[in-house]
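ok trying this again, last paste got cut off
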Amino acid sequence: MRFKVGDLVLNRLESEQGEEVDCEGIIVQHWQTPSMDGPGTVDNVVLYITLDRSWPTQTNKVVTHRGFKEFQWELKQ
């Protein structure tokens, strides 16, 4: 996984580069589990959500993402 614990990551919901950020959070925990879709593993993370435009009630909460798809996220510069 290209991210590590402590990274601030953001999600634009697969929109075009430069568009408004939909969600961002800090990676609090990372672990892998066996994939249910075949050989290999999947990444799982716990995020502390610092901004969530789609689900504002999630802001300042800790959320677990099982099967975390890192291609949907980027490191905040």
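PB: full thing came through this time. The chain has no helices and five strands.
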